[in-house]
Design goal:
Shape: globular
Strand order of the largest sheet: 2-10-9-8-7-6-5-3
Structural class: alpha/beta
Distance between the termini: 23 Å
Oligomer: single chain
Order of helices and strands: HHHEHHEHEHHEEHEHHEHEHEHEHHHHHH
Radius of gyration: 28 Å
Strand content: 5-15%
Number of strands: 10
Length: 537
């Protein structure tokens, strides 16, 4: 929270003039508009272009940043009007799940109709209370029978009472709960799929798009908090955005309150284009854990039951849950939760083979993952310590899981998905790795913008990713290959200058890498990584 913040102080261009086409005279609707209308004046103060080719214009035929684009030469005329290449421009949106202004207003004014969610969660609580009352009654009745020793006052055995037939009450969903017919529930094939873990900050849309290009099958959004989503908070809703290349895509939400999570489920069902919704029950961060969210939810049986039952029945898409082995390293509880969650309608489960207390230290417990898998019939993904294709197939076979979710392994070497599918160790060169970095930079500018603000946002997230990828050691120089994820590697020199630069743990060298594709940084620029991993401890 004390990291340096870099602020932009450049003049902004009025949106009416920003994307004006050649031969048109734009009109601003605001008489007191404080933004720049004189494009020629703006062009005089604008820094030189970073490059001669705009990735967005070349691939889509139109760059919406117009004259403010730092690669604007190819798509602006002498009057600084924005050009379109009509031969390739289709106008088709490349990303979906942008929150509309109407939805934002409804959420902020609390005018959105959540009657469905509220009714569903009330019914779930009724079922929970009925089960608890029955269990309490059964215990009382059993205790009384034991005192009577199954005899009447004359010492003769009591006549057996006819057993009363009752409806089963427990974790199984009840018929009166709002639910879809089985044929209406969306079916997904999770078997043998490569799953990119939802990664806070670094699991952004450009990075997921990069991993799709390198072979991943399933992608998931960064963790979004339930309350900001219900409040129409723009930055939280931005985490929901999906690129059209993400053909198997889920969103991950986090919360602790059953009524709140029920409303989130209704919002996702009615407003978000995704294939599944995942509940985060594994986040170890103190800020999340102390509020009863993330891994803190694992020990709260009543909220878990109501949340899972309600959300799985509100939505037509599968509900999945990601968790850890437990909260404490010497007390595993996931194996108790698995069968209960399956009966509540959860469609798939993921388990990270460490407890909340361990964070990322020590090796993941794949033997325990195998035990958890044996308790359910639904798809189960394992997670932990996979950095090469040998790890992947060995852990998948030994544990019997349906697939493996990859997190830090993908951050260190996103081409791990290519290695797994081709069953080979890719001795990737420094030039090939820089091409991958360039792809991220281009995808970032398409997503966040190619103007100054978009460039710096792309740089920030690229630097966060480089703070992980520098840990990769080229396969060709390893003495004992393959590299393991928790091995601390000593400093080394690569086979060329590019490999040595990419392996540097110095943040200033990471900044130099970004300057190759995003131009020079401003004076006084500093970078401190947001994530400080303790994976070597």
């Amino acid at each position: 929270k004390n990291r340096p913040v870099f602020k932009m102080n450049q003049t902004k261009v009025c949106s009416a003039y920003l994307d004006a086409e050649p031969g048109t005279t734009p009109e601003c609707r605001f008489p007191n508009c404080k933004y720049e209308h004189d494009l020629a004046k703006y062009a005089e103060t604008k820094p030189p272009d970073i490059g001669s080719e705009c990735f967005i214009y070349t691939n889509l035929g139109h760059c919406p940043r117009g004259v403010t684009c730092r690669f604007s030469g190819p798509h602006t005329d002498q009057n600084f009007r924005n050009l379109k290449n009509k031969q390739i421009y289709t106008g088709e949106p490349q990303e979906v799940n942008h929150i509309s202004k109407d939805l934002t207003i409804k959420l902020r004014k609390k005018e959105y109709d959540f009657k469905l969610a509220d009714k569903a969660v009330d019914l779930s609580f009724d079922i929970l209370r009925a089960r608890e009352e029955k269990e309490k009654g059964v215990k009382t009745e059993t205790s009384s029978e034991e005192k009577e020793n199954e005899t009447n006052g004359s010492g003769e055995p009591q006549a057996k009472r006819p057993k009363r037939e009752e409806k089963p009450v427990g974790y199984a969903p009840e018929e009166d709960l709002i639910k879809l017919r089985p044929q209406e529930k969306k079916k997904l094939d999770f078997k043998d799929k490569l799953y990119l873990a939802p990664l806070t900050t670094v699991g952004n849309l450009p990075f997921r798009r990069l991993c799709k290009k390198l072979g991943v099958d399933i992608t998931c959004s960064e963790m979004a908090l339930g309350l900001p989503l219900l409040q129409g908070h723009g930055p939280e809703w931005a985490l929901m955005q999906r690129h059209k290349s993400e053909d198997f895509y889920g969103v991950q939400v986090c919360g602790c309150s059953p009524p709140q999570m029920a409303r989130v489920a209704q919002l996702m069902e009615e407003n978000v284009d995704c294939d599944f919704v995942d509940i985060n029950m594994g986040c170890p961060i103190d800020l999340i854990f102390k509020k009863g969210m993330g891994s803190g939810l694992m020990m709260r049986n009543r909220p878990i039951e109501v949340i899972a039952r309600t959300m799985s029945n509100i939505m037509s898409r599968p509900l999945t849950i990601k968790m850890r082995t437990g909260v404490y390293k010497d007390k595993n509880i996931a194996h108790n939760l698995f069968p209960k969650l399956e009966n509540l309608g959860v469609g798939a489960l993921t388990i990270h083979g460490r407890s909340r207390e361990q964070r990322y230290t020590r090796l993941a417990d794949w033997e325990y993952i195998r035990e958890c898998k044996q308790t359910v019939d639904i798809p189960v993904f394992g997670n932990g310590d996979v950095l090469n294709y040998e790890d992947y197939y060995a852990k998948k076979e030994s544990s019997g899981v349906d697939g493996i979710m990859i997190a830090r392994g993908a951050l260190i070497k996103p081409w791990i998905f290519t290695e797994i599918k081709e069953r080979r160790h890719w001795d990737i060169s420094g030039s090939e790795r820089l091409d991958i970095v360039k792809d991220f930079a281009n995808f970032g500018m398409e997503h966040w913008g190619s103007d100054d603000r978009g460039i710096e946002t792309t740089r920030k997230f690229l630097l966060e990713w480089l703070s992980f990828t520098y840990r990769y050691v080229p396969h060709g120089i390893l003495v004992h290959p393959p590299q393991r994820i928790n091995e601390r590697i000593p400093s080394f020199c690569g086979r060329d200058d590019k490999e040595t630069l990419l392996a540097s743990p110095n943040g200033q060298d990471w900044v130099k890498i970004t300057e190759m594709f995003l131009g020079k940084v401003k004076d006084g620029f500093e970078f401190v990584p947001k994530h400080k991993a303790n994976s070597y401890s």
